[in-house]
Specification:
By secondary structure, this protein is mainly alpha-helical. The model has no long low-confidence stretch (mean pLDDT 86). The protein has helices spanning 19-32, 36-51, 60-65. It contains three helices and no strands.
Length: 67
């Protein structure tokens, strides 16, 4: 069914936000035009690469291509 079964995504976690945080994320979603799940996933993955000192390996174009 899928070309690469390793690229199939499944629910991993949920995030609890207060009203101000939710409004901020909703504004970013509206501004970017991306679906909320895609935007948050990209932000989390990029932050993980940065915190692990691997940001030079992160390519947002590859992340977007695997949607």
């Amino acid at each position: 069914m899928y070309q690469d079964p390793n690229l199939v995504r499944e629910r991993y976690a949920s995030v609890n936000l207060n009203d101000r945080e939710r409004t901020l994320i909703d504004a970013l979603v509206y501004h970017s035009g991306q679906p909320k799940s895609v935007l948050l996933r990209e932000m989390i993955i990029e932050e993980a690469y940065q915190r692990l000192g691997l940001s030079r390996l992160y390519n947002p174009n590859i992340a977007r291509g695997a949607q």
